[in-house]
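Sample intake sheet
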Amino acid sequence: MLEVNDRIQIPDTEFTWSFVRSSGPGGQNVNKVASKAVLRWNLSASPSVPDDVKARLRTLQRRRITVEGDLVLNSQRYRDQERNRLDCLEKLRDMIGQAAVVPKRRRPTKPTRGSREARLQEKRHRAGRKVQRRQVGEE
């Protein structure tokens, strides 16, 4: 069971695991041991996650979600299978935790009177500098 927070808990039965050979250095061991963990989780069919969190997770992780609605994660950070499996679960926990936070709504604000006046003053100053650069016979 993956516990993200007090309201989101995902049973292990929703996860599909596969293990393949890792890439990178490791000597002869890398050719024999399938230590890379690949996690597939059907986000669309999961009853464990609220719909609003699913929608935010889809927008945040759109590159990791397949056409069928599966979220695919992999880990090959460690040299043994179990630690890579736990690393995948930790990545998923972080992703769901990030998507569970409701973003604050932006409240549109107006510029202050002082900032408007400062902007206009700066425009006048810049225009005056350009007027001084002109040659005398131009006007």
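Comment: The mean pLDDT is 86. The helical segments are 51-60, 81-100, 113-133.
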